[in-house]
Design a protein that fits this description.
Elements lengths: L1 H18 L3 H49 L15 H13 L7 E5 L4 E5 L5 E10 L28 E9 L5 E6 L4 E5 L9 H6 L7 E3 L3 E3 L1 H12 L4 E5 L6 H4 L6 H9 L1
Parallel strand pairs: 1-9, 3-7, 6-8
Antiparallel strand pairs: 1-2, 2-3, 3-8, 4-5, 4-9, 5-6
């Protein structure tokens, strides 16, 4: 456009000279057009620069917004702290950790006297505690052949939850129900609380503040449904886990003789 204006101005200047208008008048005619051309060019340039600046600011704002979204990090829940436990339970947990006795599998420690279950990951991280229901019979051994008997033939004294170390896995039980089999030969399983017989008040027994009324089952270990389905089952689903059941009447050392070595194991690890 500027080239066109210059050419037009030159033509007017020549025409003015040929017709005798005079150089002054010719210059007067040419000057306004040149000024208009310069103003138009300057306005176009400044307008383009303004649009470019706005576009750049918009891109920077969008980039900052995107980078701010990506920088957000999820909040991690703090690890659970293990609440105070009985002396046998504390010794048992320390021994499992020192000896890596769980072999990388998730595990539970059941304190029968406290009617309590402690859940740990394969790395030994504490994942939660829950009350449990246990066999109505007080004792640490299963009666011979109890797993082959009908429930109606099992007397109260035979309805014990055995103490010991068990490698537990999911399997089918009566009625095609899936349970965690702790001791399959003696029909001892770990499963969600049974509510079939309302008169037994099993849920109320779980919720009671003391372990005095937690003896009701034929030997199986009952735990709250929510804890069983949401916390325990996902851990044991693939490869199972290890279940440590502490004794009622026997000493911890009688049921788990290797726990006696805990002071020596601890000393060896420290050195």
């Amino acid at each position: 456009m500027l080239d066109t204006v210059i050419m037009t101005s030159a033509g007017l200047f020549r025409r003015a000279c040929l017709t005798g208008i005079g150089v002054g008048l010719a210059l007067a005619l040419v000057a306004p057009q040149a000024a208009l051309a310069g103003g138009a060019t300057s306005g176009a340039t400044s307008g383009a620069a303004g649009k470019s600046a706005v576009s750049t600011k918009s891109r920077k704002a969008k980039a900052a917004k995107r980078s701010g979204t990506k920088a957000a990090k999820p909040v991690e829940a703090p690890p659970l702290l293990l609440p105070p436990q009985s002396e046998p339970t504390s010794r048992m947990i320390a021994w499992i950790v020192a000896e890596h006795d769980n072999a990388g599998l998730p595990y539970v420690v059941i304190d029968k006297q406290a009617a309590s279950l402690l859940l740990f990951s394969g790395k030994g991280e504490f994942l939660g505690q829950a009350p449990v229901l246990l066999g109505v019979g007080v004792g640490d051994d299963s009666s011979p052949g109890v797993g082959a008997k009908d429930l109606s033939d099992i007397g109260p004294a035979e309805r014990t939850t055995p103490a010991g170390r068990f490698v537990a896995k999911f399997g089918r039980a009566f009625g095609h129900q899936r349970v965690i089999w702790v001791d399959y030969a003696n029909s001892v399983a770990l499963h969600a609380v049974i509510t079939t017989h309302k008169s037994e008040h099993r849920v109320d027994r779980l919720l009671s503040p003391t372990p005095d009324d937690n003896r009701i089952s034929f030997g199986c270990i009952n735990v709250g449904t929510k804890f069983y389905t949401r916390t325990l089952t996902p851990l044991f689903q693939k490869k199972g886990g290890v279940v440590y059941i502490l004794p009622d009447t026997k000493s911890l050392d009688d049921v788990f003789p290797r726990v006696r070595l805990l002071p020596y194991v601890g000393a060896a690890v420290a050195s």
